[in-house]
Amino acid sequence: MKNILWNIGHELKLKNITHAMGCYIYDAEGKSYLDMESGVWCTPLGHCHPEIVEALTHQMKNIMHTGYCYAHPIIQEAAKSILEIIGFQDGKCLFLTSGSEAVEVGVKAIKTISSKPYLLTFSDSFLGSFGSSGAKPSGEWFLFDWSKCAVCPSMDNCDMECPQFLSIPFEKISGFVFEPGSSSGMVRFPPESLIKHIVNTIKTNNGFIQINEITTGMGRTGKWFGYMHYDITPDIICMGKGLGNGYPISAVAFNENTLCKMEEKGFYHSQSHQNDPLGCAAANAVIRTMKKEKTLEKCISTGSYLMKKLMELKNNYPIIQEIRGRGLIIAMEFSEKIDHDAVVSIYEQLLKKGFIIAKRPKLKAFRLDPPLVIEKRMIDDFVQAMDAILSES
Q1: In DSSP terms, which residues pair with 95 in a beta bridge?
Q2: Are 115 and 141 in contact (CB under 8 A)?
Q3: Max CA pair span of the chain
Q4: Tens of pLDDT along 112-154?
Q5: String of DSSP letters for 341-388
Q6: pLDDT for 191-241, tens place per residue?
Q7: What is the pLDDT of residue 160?
Q8: Cα(244)–Cα(44) distance, rounded to whole angstroms?
Q9: DSSP secondary structure letter of residue 171
Q10: φ/ψ (deg, to 5) at 224
Q11: Cα–Cα distance measured from residue 369 to residue 216, given in angstroms and rounded to the nearest whole number
Q12: SS3 breakdown of the chain: % helix, strand, coil, rounded to 5?
């Protein structure tokens, strides 16, 4: 790998992976690894799912890429599939290649159709790797720290006169970009009452609601999208990662009202692989397969099972401070009783035993995002390995 620039903040651990199938990847020596990360959380149906491979192969034999003035019907099919599951009647989709770009395009749209200077998001939101949504400059963004709201005894009856809430300059906010649970990898879910109050106030002030579903979308939380755990109606929904089950495809869905305002203001965005049929073939196949295989129902069942097993570990080992999760997006955070090097050691021992998880850089936490098709026997294997390692720590 001497000619590869590897600067993503994670150390390269396995350099000889040869192939993958389902929940497992394999190296050149034939050793298998249970992928509890789903790649970069991108394979909800597991690696190389036959129906997704077939859809991509079929599309590659016809046309992979289209130009600026001609299109393939699979693009419309994919858009219709997305709009049906989110209920955007008369909405439209824009297909791109990365989640970061999808979020940035949504932000760009809000900036185009609103003259208000700020966008609102939570201080622990990641949003993207570049652009305004990545940098979040102070002249364009208001970052709200909701940590006090999480422990507020009145949270279920959130008081809109609360000083914390009143600190938000709603009259200057063009839109709220909500990340419903990833929390920059730490898996924290803001209280429903807080989200409702923010959304209602934004709407009252003629602002827009954009949802970042790059990580929490495509069934990861047990629903199609993370925002569906909140009683809110968004204007813009950004999705990626699992949408292509490993193929790089993302999408931005706009509702009819937002589209009308975008048309009035002359919104424009163009890049070379926008609305490409190959990615759309993957997205369409993912949604079709998830419906057919009842993947969301499986996610709820196995997610509940994994959480139960992890809580048993927590009860047995005080070094585990907290288990947080929804569906199959789960964080395991360690306590102050264990130092960072010891957490790294647990991570490396798991890898040696054939289990890939996400270790957050510099944080004493693990992230578990296995394929939504993971089986209970695989979960048992992981928990048993974790138990054995912790018993010797």
Answers
A1: 251
A2: no
A3: 64
A4: 999 999 999 999 999 999 999 999 999 999 999 999 887 776 6
A5: HHHHHHHHHHHHTTEE-EEPTTSSEEEE---TT--HHHHHHHHHHHHH
A6: 999 999 999 999 999 999 999 999 999 999 999 999 999 999 999 999 999
A7: 62
A8: 9
A9: G
A10: -55, -45
A11: 10
A12: 40, 20, 40
Q: Which two tokens stand for residue 1?
A: 């790998």
Q: What is the pLDDT of residues 6-46, one digit of tens each?
A: 988 888 999 999 999 999 999 999 999 999 999 999 999 99
Strands, DSSP E only, in 294-339? Answer: 320-326, 329-334
Which string of DSSP letters, residue by residue, matches 70-86?
Answer: ---HHHHHHHHHHHHHH
**Stated length of the chain:** 393
Tokens of 223: 């629903």
Dihedrals phi, psi of 28, to nearest 5 degrees = -65, -20
CA-wise closest residue to 240 among 140, 150, 128: 128
Angstrom distance (rounded) from CA 97 to CA 41: 15
**Dist CA 194 CA 151 (whole Å):** 12
Closest-CA residue to 103 (of 258, 217, 238): 238
Q: Match 């150390």 to its residue by tokens.
A: 11
Q: What CA–CA distance (Å, rounded) separates 325 from 301?
A: 13
Amino acid identity at 134: G
Which runs of E-coded beta strand occur in the chain?
A: 17-21, 24-27, 32-35, 92-96, 118-122, 141-144, 173-178, 208-212, 236-239, 250-254, 320-326, 329-334, 355-356, 358-359, 365-368
Write out the H or E segment, with its range, that includes residue 298: helix 295-316
